[in-house]
Amino acid sequence: MRTFAFWFVCIFLVLFLGPVFLLLSFVEEKKRIPNMLAVFWSWILLKIAGVKIYIKGEENLKKYKQYIIVSNHQSYMDIFALICILKRVPHFLAKKELFRIPIFGQCLRAVDVIEIDRDNPDKALSSIKSALSKGLDRPIAIFPEGTRSLDGNLQPFRKKGLNLLMDTHLPFVAMAFYGTREVMPKKSYKVRKHPVCVCIDEPFFVGKNLTESEKDKIRDKLWNKVYKMRDCAISMCRDRVKIEK
User: Fold this and answer.
1) Helical spans, DSSP H, in 30-93
2) Which residue of 32, 89, 151, 225 pairs with 174 in a disulfide if CB–CB is 3.0 to 4.6 A?
3) Domains along the chain?
């Protein structure tokens, strides 16, 4: 029943709120109302899924206006949860396949989600450079594993997109989700009730004029930071499940 309700509402929101969302994104230049609608959209879907979010380190998202979020990727629910945590839509880096979904794809473009072609690294880099050249007024969010983890383990970080973002000189914020995979795992559309725990590390700067070798070391450092946040989130969720039982 929960799965049916989730997808029914999801389709309803895309078909009926989607056109309104698109219209407002063209009418209002700063896109405040579309952002509010996206937060509501995400909140209602998480509510139907029975998700409660528990956060540690939320204050680390308030130290700078603009930053780059580096996170693990367990489920599509990560996206809805992150939007609700930030209370706005970050500039996600999203795979091109999502932009092919009618109305939904246009909504992604309307809030400046950056389209990434995973099969064409050069084109993906071009998309990131084009977006950065326009100037971005919200946090950037990247899931550098490149895809959702099938078993929940943290996968190696892909190089090019993350290395390019190091040239923005913006602070990086490592964070990790746990529980979203239990709500909706990869290769499944069934929705299950489960708490979602999020741990957020302190922002840090990576320096300027980095060599490729230095970027590789920083990428490894980011991986370790996300891994540490993942362990934190796992511990939080296990304690939370015991309490709720």
Assistant:
1) 32-49, 77-86
2) 225
3) 2-244 (3.40.1130.10)
Core vs surface per residue 221-234: b (16+ CB within 10 A) or e: ebbebbeebbebbb
In angstroms, rounded to a whole number, what is the distance separating the alpha carbons of residues 147 and 167?
23
**What sign for the dihedral angle of Cα 175, 148, 222, 138?**
negative
* Of 7, 46, 23, nearest in space to 103 by CA: 23
SS3 193: coil
Give pLDDT tens digits along the chain (245 positions).
899 999 999 888 888 877 877 776 677 666 777 788 889 989 999 999 999 999 999 999 999 988 999 999 999 999 999 999 999 889 888 777 877 877 777 777 777 788 877 677 677 767 777 777 776 778 899 999 988 999 999 999 988 788 888 888 889 999 999 999 999 999 999 999 999 999 999 999 998 888 989 999 999 999 999 999 999 999 998 877 655 55
CA–CA separation, 22 and 106 (whole Å): 7
Q: Which residue's entry shows tokens 């880099």?
A: 125
Distance from C-alpha of 25 to C-alpha of 159, rounded to nearest angstrom: 33
